[in-house]
Write a structure and sequence with these properties.
With 163 residues, the protein is α+β, with helices and mostly antiparallel strands. It is built from four helices and six strands; from the N terminus they run H-H-E-E-E-H-E-H-E-E.
């Protein structure tokens, strides 16, 4: 796993993992186990991807991930050094464009998001791409932060998408 250290830098960062469904990873084998499950998943390469940063004179580097959990619920993260640079907007745009055009995802009618209501950055990016609030639920998930509420959002499949 060539990108293990890059992934681990995201998964072990308290700020990056603040609103993730698990606590920050404490060691590299924990991240490797997560990555193995990601790579072995039926969704790998279809709707679950690493976000790679490339720039002139710089070796490519994994800086985050974006994908659909269980084939319909979006999740994403970005390494802290890359926050505020428009990179998640770029990744989200490419991800959604590719997802809706992928023939293996023709039956997907909507994408859902379950976001901690305190996560303003994620809510903001989702709304920029047309996700609409569909509900609010209290004490839906217990994480390393304690009990968390959920803001539910949804994006319908765009009508103009044709394969």
């Amino acid at each position: 796993m060539d990108d293990l250290d890059d992934f681990h830098s995201c998964f072990s960062d308290d700020e990056v993992m603040r609103y993730w469904s698990t606590a920050p990873h404490t060691d590299t084998p924990q991240t490797e186990k997560y990555l193995r499950s990601m790579v072995d998943s039926q969704w790998n390469g279809i709707c679950d991807f690493a976000i790679q940063y490339t720039a002139p004179s710089v070796a490519p580097k994994v800086i985050g991930k974006i994908g659909l959990w269980d084939g319909h619920e979006i999740g994403f993260m970005l390494g802290r050094p890359f926050w505020g640079k428009g990179l998640m907007k770029e990744a989200m745009s490419q991800f959604l464009s590719d997802l809706w055009k992928n023939e293996k995802m023709n039956d997907l009618k909507e994408i859902k998001a379950d976001v901690d209501p305190r996560n303003d950055a994620s809510i903001g990016i989702l709304k920029k791409f047309g996700f609409k609030e569909t509900g609010y639920r209290e004490r839906t998930f217990e994480t390393h932060l304690g009990w968390c509420d959920s803001l539910d959002l949804q994006m319908e499949r765009p009508v103009a998408v044709t394969n």
